[in-house]
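Appendix B. One record, verbatim.
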Amino acid sequence: MSKPSAPRREADNEAKAVLRAVRISPRKLDLVAATIRGKKAATAVNELTFSKKRIALDVKKALNSAIANAENNHNLDVDRLVVAEASVGKGLIMKRFQTRGRGRAAGIVKPFAHLTIVVRERAETEEK
C-alpha cells in the first residue's frame, strides 16, 4: 500500500533534465543558458560544443540528458525538439576565508547553482 504517484508536471510534449549543485556562480551559468534558450536542440548542442566557456560542457551534458529523456521516456521526435526553458537557480554557498595582513581575514564565497532544461516537441505546423 503505497501512495499514488504524482502526476507529471510537464506537458505530454515536454521532457526535462536537472543539473544540481554545479560549482559555478548562477550569474555565469545564466550567460551560457541564455545562448541556448528557444533554439532547436541540435543547434543548441552545436553551440555548446564550440563555446569557450568552461561550464558549457556541463550544460551540454544536461541538454543531451533532456534530449535522451524525451526520446526514450516520452517517445518524442528528436528532430523537432526545441529548448523551451533553460532556467538557473541559486544553490548553496560555501564560505571560506583568506588570511590577510595584520591578523585580519577576508571572506570568500564559493557559490553553487542549479540548472533545469526543458525541451519541447514542436508541432509540424509551427515548424513552417
